[in-house]
Amino acid sequence: MTPGFSIRCVVMAASDPGSWPPLFGQVVGADRAGVDRVVLSGEHVVFGERLDEYARPELGGRAGGRQPTGPDGHFLEPMTTMSFLAGMTTRIRLTNSILLAALRRPIVLAKSAATLDVLSGGRLDLGVGIGWQRAEYEAAGLDFAARGRLLDHTLEVCCLLWREQRATYRAPELSFENIHLMPKPAQPGGVPIWVSGTVNPGAMRRLARFGAGWIPWGKASDVAAELLDTIPRMRDAVAEFGRDPGELGIAGKLPNVPGPDGNPDRAATLAGLPALLAAGVTDVRLQLPVPGAAAAAEDYLTPWVHGFREIAGAP
Description:
By secondary structure, this protein is α/β, with parallel strands linked by helices.
C-alpha cells in the first residue's frame, strides 16, 4: 500500500467558536496542497455529565485520558460536515475519527453515506467505533452494554444495502425483505470502513468482517514503539478470523517535534516517519497548526507534503 499523508482537523470546541470558516480554509488548502486525506477528529451527538468515564478503558475510554471539553462542548456532526467540505474540494479524501455509527438508524446511515460518496466522486471513508459514553446511548434509546453488537448490526445493514441490488436481512434487531437502496456508493463494494479499537476479540472480529483499515485506540495510537508490538498482534488476530491482514490499511499518528518557536519543526517531525512506516502504518496522520485561510494553508502544507513524499517514496 502506498503510504498516505493525512491531516487531522478538530471539529469540536470547548465553547462556541463563533464560526467555523477556519476549518473550511484548512481543508481547501489541504486539497490544493496535495494532502491525501483530511480526518475530522471528534464526534458526540449529545453529552451526559459523567465525563470521568472517558478515562475508563473497560467502557471504551482511554486510560489516563481526559475528555477535551465539558458537556456543553460544541461538536459538529461528521456526516453533515464532510458533505459540506466535499462541495468545497475536488480530490482530497474525507474521513472521520470516529463516527458512533450505532447511534444512527442503519438504513439512514447507509443512504447518507452512499449519497455523500456519489456526490464527492468516491472520496469518503468511514471511521467507526463503539464510543465510551453510556448517557449518549441511553439518550438514543439504546442499550450501552450491547453497543458492540449494535455497531456490528449497523455495519451489516450498510454493507448489505451498498452491495446488493435487492437486499433481504434477518436479525434479532431488524428484518426486511426485497429492499432497494439507490444510488449505490461510487466506490465498488461500498464505502471503505475503518474500524477503531484495541486488540480485543470484538474489535478484531469487526475489523476482519468489515474493515478496510484499522484505527488503533489507546496508548498504541500515539507511540510508534507501541505500534511495533500492537500491529503484529492485530494482524495475528485478524488472520485467526479468516481475513488477510495485508488487505488492511493502518492509521497512525506522527507526533509533532516542536522547534525553537514552539511550532512543529518539519524536518524533525518527519524524521519520525520511517519508524512509523516500518511499524506498518499506511495512513500517517498529523495534527498541524494549519492557517485558517485557504491560500495560507496551501503554502504551509505544500512543503510538508513534499517532505513526506520524499521520505515515504510516494508519488
